[in-house]
Write a structure and sequence with these properties.
Elements: E1 4-8, H1 29-34, E2 46-47, E3 53-57, E4 85-95, E5 103-123, E6 131-140, E7 144-146, H2 151-154, E8 159-160, E9 177-178, H3 187-202
Parallel strand pairs: 1-4
Antiparallel strand pairs: 1-9, 2-3, 3-6, 4-5, 5-6, 5-7, 5-8
């Protein structure tokens, strides 16, 4: 099984900033209270110092003031308890749409770097109010796919389970990160993850990034 991680984010159509027609929903109390979500730029590519285009992926990590993403829980990364990052991971972004009862994949990064601690990228502003984007995932734009909104619901390929619901013994819990496939004793989970990887690798539809 390839290294893969699922990250829950607020639901949006394009993730290129908040607009009148694309506002985040179902992103927890912070999004509800502020009408803002840091993941609103997850599929808005930027050119970095090496002159390549990248996407910077954010999800809210739990764990107090200095939360960490425990990359040693990713499949194949058990011996990386001291590593600050790991490369070549599939990152699957998921959300629950407005009035939807189930989680769906909104998009994914292939060949991504996953960081243990939040990274920051500063975007200068002419008015002096620089914008700082925190992120845990980094991937080249060519390896990133944002599914069209209707595609997310068109088939069962993009359904994401929640543990304890609809008869599933695996899937998301209270955390925004699901280290899928780490419980290798659960063959149902392994089969689900392998099918998801196949759906990602074989996807040749529209990419609205």
């Amino acid at each position: 099984m390839k290294p893969i991680i699922f990250a829950r984010i607020a639901d949006m159509k394009f993730y290129k900033g908040i607009t009148d027609t694309d506002k985040p929903v179902n992103g927890g109390s912070y999004v509800k209270d502020t009408n803002y979500a840091h993941e609103c730029y997850n599929f808005d590519s930027v050119i970095l110092e090496d002159e390549k285009e990248y996407c910077l992926g954010f999800t809210q990590l739990l764990g107090g003031k200095d939360p960490q993403l425990h990359i040693e829980h990713i499949v194949g990364c058990k011996g990386m308890k001291d590593a600050l990052s790991v490369d070549n991971v599939i990152v699957v972004f998921c959300s629950k749409a407005h009035n939807s009862k189930t989680m769906r994949v909104v998009g994914f990064y292939k060949n991504a770097t996953v960081f243990r601690d939040y990274q920051e990228c500063v975007f200068p502003s002419e008015d002096g109010n620089d914008y700082v984007q925190s992120y845990s995932f980094l991937a080249e734009k060519k390896d990133c796919v944002l599914l069209p909104y209707q595609e997310r619901f068109r088939t069962g390929d993009w359904f994401v389970p929640t543990s304890g619901k609809m008869g599933y013994s695996f899937g998301y819990g209270h955390n925004n990160i699901w280290f899928a496939g780490s419980n290798t004793y659960n063959m149902d989970e392994i089969n689900y993850v392998n099918k998801m990887i196949e759906s990602i690798e074989n996807y040749n539809g529209e990419n609205v990034i």
